[in-house]
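Next comes this protein:
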Amino acid sequence: MKVLVTGADGFVGSWLVRRLMADGHAVTGTYRLEEDRRMQRFDAALRDRITWVPLELADDESVRRAVDGDWDVVAHLAAVSWVTVAERDPGRAWNENAGGTARLTRVLADAKRVGDADPVVLVVSSVEVYGPGTHEPRRETDPAAPVSAYAASKVGAEVAALGEWRRAGLRVVVARPSPHTGRGQSERALVPRYARRIVTARRARAAAIATGLLDGVRDILHVSDVVDAYVRLLATGVPGEVYNVSSGEGVALKDLVVRLCVLAGWQPILEVDAADVRPDAVPHLVGDGAKLRAATGWAPRRSLDETLQDVLDAQAD
């Protein structure tokens, strides 16, 4: 298949590209000129096997040039992907996440209408769109109630993409993944951030590490399992449908950090530092993945301990 992956040089995008290449597909990947991470994500041999095109989601012409083609499938991962970045500049988050998805899906819908291409388009959103709620796992039928600029812009992206499915029959499938981690993830994310602190404390024989409040609950997946779900949805996802990519099993973030300590073999005192405290408007967020399992047979293969160990091993490299 001819596959376009937007955000191919990002954390998840690079994992997805490797999986697609291993499966024998011809992959074109996009990257941002201002944040070109291809060198750090791929070795030279693999990098040269991928066709690369620049993409600026906020620029109509850039989107048209990057997206115009006879793709079999398009995996749209490019986005403002950090909650903190979106909160600092919500206009940018809306312009790139919602507006960029609107631009991308309109180009693809126009190509479909004239018979140039009819791709399956996977739009990656987030379980963050559900916002506050009960302690029950969230289902796709639950209403979206975003409480951050990031989550709101992802709802906008979903609306734009599904609008093209209704208007033009563009085969849009929406994925709402739970938080995921693995080798190569930025230390902006919780698991690699605390893995680094714990490993550093162990090396220095430090008695304590700084933490935030760690009072939230999330289901945490390994990035390879999330990528596997995306590949399955590209093959068998039903156009117009939304799928949670979730384990259904929540873990308290404090317990997660303690588990990292156990796996690392170092038990520092967890000291709350005001500078590290971040307000969490969604204290409990666990997705129900039953719909995805029923549609594709997907289930996570990596346990939580295996996932955490992979990140700890990356810190030791």
About this structure: The radius of gyration is 19 Å. The mean pLDDT is 95.
